[in-house]
Amino acid sequence: MKPYLSIIIPAWNEASTIPCTLQHLLNQSDFIRGAGMSFEIIVVDDGSVDNTYEAAWPWVDKLIKHDRRRGKGAAMQSGVAKARGDLLLFLDADLQDTAGEALVLIEPLLRREADMAIAKLPPSTAKAGFGLVKGMARRGIHRLSGYKTEAPLSGQRAVRADRLRELGGFAHGFGVEVALTIDAVRHGLRIVELDVPITHRETGRDWHGCVHRGKQFAEVGLTLLTRWKGRKRVWLSSDRSSI
User: Fold this and answer.
1) What is the chain's mean pLDDT, rounded?
2) Residue 174's pLDDT band (boundaries 50, 70, 90)?
3) How does DSSP classify residue 30?
4) Which residues pair with 195 in a beta bridge?
5) Could you give the count of Cα atoms lying within 13 Å of 173 in the half-sphere of its Cβ?
6) Where residue 6 falls among pLDDT bands split at 50, 70, 90?
7) Which of 99, 147, 152, 174 sits CB 3.0–4.6 Å from 216 for a disulfide?
8) What's the pTM value of the predicted model, to 2 decimals?
């Protein structure tokens, strides 16, 4: 039985970028079919207030719209609920003409060398953040799972659907990728990280960028705290069962 790929793209106010992203994904359809695969593209409009839904409609197989913004984790969960693929590829909506590069992430899964593949993006050429969120996320993942990651915040990742279902639901907000990596390691998924020449929009060092990174820092920190408390509960349960 040939593998089936579901490409899931959560989007919020991406009307200006998502048509280009979807078009460049569809330009790779021959590559996907050449690998012996069928595929579908699913976009989840997470309560956008622009015309993201209308902009995505001509290019997708399934289009889901939330009535309000629920967060990236909820959008990913909605996409998974409608996906029929045994391989899932999560992508951001603003990859534009580099979106097709992400398909390399499915190759380790097809070769059964990994259960999850995460994209490592090239270093930014512009002045963006100060690395605080990424550093905290990397250290937190290592401390809570033992896994050393170079791409703790990457939203571009492929995963086997059956292994993903073992993890339960997604975390909320900007901590979704951090939680996904921690949960994957704790459940024994084999993870690889690949250099992929993907670019997407980055926030700068202006006021808007600082507010965005502040919110991201808080939500990643909360995610790490939640996963730490979860591990602590497991330890306490194990201690009680041995008495």
Assistant:
1) 88
2) confident
3) H
4) 120
5) 14
6) very high
7) 174
8) 0.88
The conformational region for residue 75 under phi > 0 = left, psi -120 to 50 = alpha, else beta, is alpha
Q: Are 210 and 136 in contact (CB under 8 A)?
A: no
Question: How many angstroms separate the CA atoms of 205 and 209, rounded?
Answer: 5
Residue 133 has pLDDT above 60, yes or no: yes
Report which residue type is found at 46: D
> What is the spatial distance between Cα 147 and Cα 210, in angstroms, rounded to a whole number?
29
Cα separation, 13 vs 55, in Å, equals 10
pLDDT band of 130, cuts 50, 70, 90: low
Show contacts of 16-20: CB within 8 Å, 24+ apart.
16/55, 17/93, 17/94, 17/96, 17/201, 18/43, 18/52, 18/55, 18/56, 18/93, 18/94, 19/55, 19/56, 19/58, 19/59, 20/96, 20/97, 20/99
- Kindly report the length of the chain: 243
